[in-house]
Structures are given as structure tokens and as C-alpha cells.
Amino acid sequence: MGELHVNMHVTLDGVITANGGPTEVDGDFPYAGWEWPYGDEEHGARLLEIVEGSDALLLGRVTYDIFRAYWPGKTDRIGTLFERVPKYVASRGEPELSWQGTTQIRDVATEVRALRERHEQTQTWGSSDLLQTLLAEGLVDVINLWTYPIVLGMGGHVFPAGTVATRFALEEPAMTYPSGVVLLRYRRLDGLPETGRAPGA
Fold it and tell me: What is the pTM of this model?
């Protein structure tokens, strides 16, 4: 069976809102585009390597609309890959499926399980709502947290209140980049988080 890998760009205080720039959904969020000052060659090369490890793309409705507006027609390596691989948008509504190779998913629990059987590695990007559903259904294999050295104090969080309790193990040593970005790669473990007491408590 294939795997589902999640990629999230996140601040030190866990914010993910408008990392790539302003969108209609984010309104007048004052720090839109906060990830861009931290790009560097090493960071970009690792991001590209991770993207090229996938053979399918799973997106929430909002992220799909952002990607659909930007990536079609791009001829760089990421744009070429995104154009080539099957794309799936998780939505119970009526998304505009104008990006070539897109299929709508209405039942995440059932249909994403089927994706993991058809594809070696499906990747999803940037949707906290979709991530919460995938975690609740036990469908996440690896989560890549691209962590940026800033605190915003506002915005939506990668793990909001109500996120299902989940255990992870470090997939590989943390990778640090000249800009201060740290990549933390975690593999989901079965079972609830363990607890304990300090010695002598």
C-alpha cells in the first residue's frame, strides 16, 4: 500500500494562514506571504526533492483553488510534476475542476484509502481542515513541518483545538537551512500519546 505525506509551512507559534501570499479566504491578514523571505537554495532543493517523490496530489478545496490559479502552465520542475500527476480535491461542494487531471473526492475516509492503494506516495499541502480529517481517519503516514523562525500571534493553526490526539516518531534527523527554516519529518504511530510522571512525583 502507498503512503500519504502531508506538507505544512508553519510558524513557531503554529500558524499556517496565508504562508504563500494573500487570498480571498484570508481577507486582510497582515502577514500574508510570510514564508517567502526565508527561501534559500538548500531549502528549495529539499522541497523539490520531496515534491518529486510523489505520484499524486490531494488538496482541500481552498488550497486547490490557490494551486489551480497559479500552477497550470508553469514549466519549472514543480509545475511540470503537478501538471503530470493525478490531482484530487476533497470537497462536498462544487469545485471548479478546470485543472487538467483533477478528480473530486467527496468521502475522504473511503476514497483516500483507495488512493493509498493506487499511488505509491500521495502528497497533500497546506490545508488544516483536511489534515484534521485525515488524522481522525488514521490516513496520514508522514507529516513534513517546514518550520519558520517567526511568531505571528494570529491566524489559523496547524493543530487547532479538537485535533485528534496522535503520536509521531521522528522519520529522520531535523534538517536546518541557512535562512533559519527547520524541516521536521514525523511518521504517525498507532495508539494514543503516552503519559507518565516525573521521578519522585
Answer: 0.93
Distance set, CA 114 to CA 2, 111, 122, 183 (Å): 10, 5, 11, 29
Residue 195, CA distances (Å) to 20, 78, 180, 201 in order:
37, 41, 32, 13
Which one, of 86, 22, 96, 28, lies nearest residue 64 by Cα? 96
**Residue whose C-alpha is closest to residue 97's, from 107, 87, 84, 106:** 87
The pLDDT tens digits along the chain (201 residues) read 899 999 999 999 999 999 988 887 777 899 999 999 999 999 999 999 999 999 999 999 989 999 999 999 999 999 999 999 999 999 999 999 999 999 999 999 999 999 999 999 999 998 889 999 999 999 999 999 999 999 999 999 999 999 999 999 999 999 999 999 999 999 999 999 999 988 876
Residue type at position 139: L
Distance between first and last Cα of the chain? 44
**Structural domains of the chain ordered from first start:** 3-189 (3.40.430.10)
Q: Are 22 and 36 in contact (CB under 8 A)?
A: no
Task: Read off the amino acid at residue 164.
Answer: V
Q: Are 47 and 187 in contact (CB under 8 A)?
A: no
